[in-house]
């Protein structure tokens, strides 16, 4: 519906939502900048900011370090007590984050597990972690909901995990299981899809119109695509499963999994093995591999980079992205020599296409999946802050 077809209250709700989204994505912003960005007049901005402030969604403060003559424009920012719980269940650990509306991860916990957790065990762990945080860092929080980044195929409209093969989950109504136990709104999506959302809004792909993103985790490799600034989900919502493609392996000596797919060859488990670790979070694995002594780690990193380069070249040839972003252990593989990996990708890609892309590691590091999951949980607040703020 066009704005001409909206009544005054609907227009006001849209304007309130627009302001909150701007503050959420851009951070603290002056009233004058909000006026410029929205095209609304100063009195309307003052009125909208006043309402959001009364509802406890935003707060105003004088700008720090201002030395201009005259009265400076007040800076508006989202209040830090609006929180989402973000969760990433994996085969070796479940990671939790409490993410504020300003994008800051104020609490994080990684609980290692002996084997892949069941959906019911995951729900119990989520509930227990929330209760623990309510007695500490979330004592004054206004929880909007839970976002869960699952390494598998997720039917987003009803939160059904169709297939998370490494976790052993098939047709699991995870949204309903978690929301019933926690009594909080819950959103489920693929982990790589949420990682892409986070990197596109706040990280290495911010402001980029054409992006290919690959995420490397304990369960394998997933990915996502942005075209003309919009995420591409595919007919069933499962686009981006780069890890299930069969890469080109130029040397037989590089092959480890006969007839294997990309995630069989480019593997976090293989990196853990040469690093002498049974389990590790992303920073620990990156640190150990960076400082590994001996040829085994270096040889395995080089082998995986060679195979990864062929897979990335295929993606570049097909999708012609401006930027390719690598997260998780793939970022570790790239970080040993990002320029060298990009050069290797270009050697396999069409010259005219390969010349134009840029290879980047995820800007949000290990927080990318948590921030992406939180973004999904924040969606109702960002769409209608007036309504949700009245309920909570």
Automatic annotation (TrEMBL):
The lineage of its organism: Bacteria, Bacillati, Actinomycetota, Actinomycetes, Micrococcales. PANTHER family: BIFUNCTIONAL UDP-N-ACETYLGLUCOSAMINE 2-EPIMERASE_N-ACETYLMANNOSAMINE KINASE, ROK (REPRESSOR, ORF, KINASE) FAMILY. It comes from Microbacterium marmarense. Belongs to the ROK (NagC/XylR) family. InterPro entries: ATPase_NBD, ROK, WH-like_DNA-bd_sf, WH_DNA-bd_sf. This is ROK family protein.
């Amino acid at each position: 519906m066009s704005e001409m077809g909206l009544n005054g209250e609907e227009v006001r709700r849209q304007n309130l939502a627009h302001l909150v989204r701007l503050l959420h994505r851009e951070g603290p912003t002056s009233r004058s900048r909000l006026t410029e960005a929205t095209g609304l007049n100063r009195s309307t901005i003052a009125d909208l900011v006043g309402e959001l402030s009364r509802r406890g969604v935003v707060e105003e403060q004088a700008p720090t370090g201002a030395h201009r003559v005259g009265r400076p424009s007040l800076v508006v920012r989202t209040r830090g007590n609006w929180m989402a719980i973000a969760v990433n269940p994996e085969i070796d650990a479940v990671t939790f984050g409490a993410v504020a509306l300003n994008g800051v991860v104020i609490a994080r916990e990684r609980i290692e597990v002996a084997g892949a957790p069941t959906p019911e065990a995951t729900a119990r762990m989520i509930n227990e972690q929330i209760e623990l945080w309510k007695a500490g860092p979330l004592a004054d929080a206004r929880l909007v909901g839970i976002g869960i980044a699952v390494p598998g195929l997720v039917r987003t409209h009803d939160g059904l995990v169709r297939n998370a093969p490494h976790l052993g989950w098939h047709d699991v109504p995870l949204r309903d299981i978690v929301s019933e136990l926690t009594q909080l709104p819950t959103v489920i999506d693929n982990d790589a899809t949420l990682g892409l959302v986070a990197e596109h809004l706040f990280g290495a792909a911010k402001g980029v119109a054409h992006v290919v993103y690959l995420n490397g985790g304990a369960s394998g490799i997933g990915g996502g695509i942005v075209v003309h600034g919009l995420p591409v989900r595919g007919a069933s919502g499962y686009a981006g499963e780069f890890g299930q493609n069969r890469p080109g392996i130029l040397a037989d000596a590089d092959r480890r999994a006969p007839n294997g797919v990309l995630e069989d060859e480019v593997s976090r488990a293989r990196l853990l093995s040469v690093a002498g670790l049974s389990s590790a979070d992303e920073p620990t694995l990156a640190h150990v591999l960076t400082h590994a002594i001996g040829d085994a780690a270096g040889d395995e990193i080089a082998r995986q980079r060679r195979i990864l380069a062929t897979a990335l070249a295929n993606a570049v040839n097909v999708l012609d992205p401006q930027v390719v972003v690598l997260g998780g252990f793939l970022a570790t593989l790239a970080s040993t020599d990002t320029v060298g990996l990009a050069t290797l990708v270009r050697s396999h890609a069409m010259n005219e296409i390969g010349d134009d892309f840029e290879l980047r590691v995820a800007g949000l590091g290990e927080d990318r999946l948590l921030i992406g999951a939180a973004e999904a949980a924040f969606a109702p607040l960002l769409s209608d802050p007036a309504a949700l703020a009245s309920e909570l």
